[in-house]
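Exercise 7.
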Amino acid sequence: MVAHLSTDEVYNQACLDETLDRLPSTSGGLTGWNARGVRVRRAMPPLEVLQEWEARQERVRRAWGALGLNARIQTSAGPYPLRLEIWHLAREYAIHADDIEVPMTAGERRAQLRWRVAFGLFAANEEGEPVDAKVEHDRVQLRHAGRQYDLDFETFIAYLTDRPQQLKDPAGRRLLRQLAVQG
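Solution. The predicted structure, written as tokens, is:
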């Protein structure tokens, strides 16, 4: 996990330094770039990977803080609002916190799920894959392939991130696999 996060920070640094064109090219876009970065770091001692990630992350966060939330940074998609780049990174960290089951209080989890649902809907639109869904209290009404589904926040987030394995409930995992097949 830390190898993946450290690879992300190499990308973030290149965005700040406007050196994206100097990153090693790989097939597969950012997914290919990440796979390469993880492979490279597998040969490194775990402590070294952790220290690399911490140092890169600190540098990027300080630089972003100095720029301010209203700044625009260079990204692989072109100039992009820093405020939105930070939201994307927060979503990434939240996904991986779920992957490794980071403990949090019930209140923290509810708050996290609420912003992840809101941002997930925004990100899907921004990425050209809008989702027909409406948030009602602590539920999401999803319209998919001509049918309506009533999902809790956890299930909806697993749907948005294509991570049914994060659900503890086998019925929820089955439903998301079924939705994936329906396209």
